[in-house]
Amino acid sequence: MKILTFIFMSILPFFAISQVEITLNIHQPPELDFNITKQDTTIVTGESVKIGDEIIVFGGSGDYHYTWFPDESLDNPLIINPVASPEDTTTYQLTVTDDNGCSFSVAYTVNVRETPNSSNIITADELPLNVILYPNPNTGIFRVRLKGLPAEKIELNIVDIRGRHMFKSIISDFYGEHTEIMQQDLASGTYILEVKSDATNLRTQFIIHKYTNL
Fold first, then answer.
1. What does the pLDDT profile of the chain (214 residues) look like in tens digits?
2. What is the CATH number of domain 128-214?
């Protein structure tokens, strides 16, 4: 809860000054966030599985709106727990948005193996790269959490919606887990973070919103 106080002064006839104090109580909801206990599951070819049970969303304002991508192998990509029936191992990205337009994205992988006894299974820790950007939206200061297989080099690019490159950073000798703190003096708007390595090329959208104090 934020409390703002405004003082108004008016000049009355005969040079008298009147002062009125108005106090406004502004409710600011907690930041939209999530907890996740597991980011992958494994099925046999031809099976289906409900995903998203391990994701707990909290904070934000109003109702939550869910979007999974890719959605071709989901029965309903607009709910938090769709049923997935992929033919091959697939990494889905869930984007959660509240009524104020605040959002975050998180990845969830369904590994598909040919037989129950197959040992050729990729776990979440063995994915080429998993990327979480938070908070989203932000004021230009945010974190990019990377987790996955080691790589000699990971490239981070920020691109605006017109495709113009606004920022580039190189992470050398990535050993499996790293959090990059980004401080960008960019105008308010929608941007895309590109994360590239020898094994992957990921893109995630985020919003910069510069708040103006009156």
1. 455 554 555 555 555 555 556 555 555 667 888 877 778 888 888 888 999 888 888 888 888 999 999 999 999 999 999 999 998 888 898 999 988 888 888 888 888 887 654 444 444 445 678 888 888 889 999 999 898 888 899 999 999 988 899 999 999 999 888 999 999 999 999 999 999 988 888 888 889 988 655 4
2. 2.60.40.1930
- Torsion 97-205-93-82 (CA) sign: positive
d(CA 151, CA 69): 26
Amino acid sitting at position 170: I
Residue 12: burial class (beta carbons within 10 Å; 0-12, 13-18, 19+): exposed
Show the CA angle centred on residue 132, arms to residues 38 and 85, nearest 5°.
Answer: 50
CATH 2.40.170.20 fits 30-127, yes or no: no
Cα angle 86-123-32, degrees, rounded to a multiple of 5: 80
In the chain, CATH 2.60.40.10 sits at 30-127
Rounded CA separation 32/95 (Å) = 12
Q: Where in the chain is the domain with CATH 2.60.40.1930?
A: 128-214
* This prediction's pTM: 0.47
Sequence-separated (6 or more) residues with CB below 8 Å from residue 79: 66
CB 187 within 8 A of CB 210: yes
Instruction: List, in order, residues 6 or more apart from 207 with CB less than 8 Å away.
Output: 101, 103, 136, 137, 138, 189, 190, 191
